[in-house]
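FW: tagging you since you asked about this chain on Friday. Here's the raw sequence from the shared folder, copied in full. Didn't touch anything.
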Amino acid sequence: MDISAAMIIKRGEEKELERCLKSLKGIVSQIVAVTSPKNEKEDETDRLLSDFGADVFYLEWPGDYSVARNESLKHVTGDYVLVIDTDEYIKRFDFSPNPDVHVYRLLRENEYTDSDMALSNRERLNRIFKNGLFHYEGRVHEQLVPNDGKECITELTDVILGHTGYTDPSSMLEKSRSYREMLFSMLEDSPYDPYVLFQIGRTYYVEKDYENAVIYFEKALNLDPDPDLEYVESLLETYGYALLNHGEAKKAMSLLGVYDEFSRFADFLFLCGLIYMNNALFDEAIAEFEKAAETDRFSVEGVNSYLAFYNCGVIKEVLGDRSAAISYYKKCGDYPPSKDAIKRLG
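HL: got it, structure written out here
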């Protein structure tokens, strides 16, 4: 079994590129790199790609991520394709293909910052697939699409990518605005595509423009997207947080008890706890946080452990139950706010 890595590369990111290429060593038999033609600006991109034996193909940036992705797919020769970006790297690669499966969803661990705190979350992405069966569609936030239009068989796999593309807040804002221009262009062609509407809402959410985020998330949800699609859980959760951040906690109650298929995820249970908490339904909030703490499927670090217990502690402290509050805070381990709360309560 041979695996080809397919990459589209922006020049000037040599540090991340070298880390990515090193992580592929011994895993893939071919690296296909699509990048812009050489220019007067000196960088180490071409040297690095040459050092790691990559097959390099030059393409003027087409303003369309799918065009660049599909260009890379033209040149892969392996039985399977691994799509990986410059700011990603292999953390674990335990891959045993099943001949009946077409696509594999790996786990990506995103590192990011919020209020100067280093945080992480996790998401499942369709990034490994049989060669020759797929292409990409969408100018930005491109999606993998079967060539024959038929439903494909997807399976989770024990492959983990690290991702550091969200660690610079200013860079995130710049990307968000750039993506939104492309997404609005896509919306002109597909005005009833819930995925495009979701992604537009997410760009506003990144910029903390919660009013517009809510508008576009609701437009997406009004089109009844299939709950089995990989982005729908994120759509619901981000919509819930946008409502809470926009001061519409009562409206957020509409998410409760409607999407039971997502109750197996700690992230959704944690959001439900926050919605109850913001509506002063404290017993219900604690019940949701405790269910989140018992769930091992999560994306955002802490929602199934210290963050859930901390919120329970806050509720008990507000209600004047000092003993119960301390008990919950102690379950948070080394989480700094909980340690401060224990000191405060003596």
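FW: The first helix runs from residue 14 to 24.
HL: agreed, and The chain has a mean pLDDT of 92.
FW: great, closing this out.
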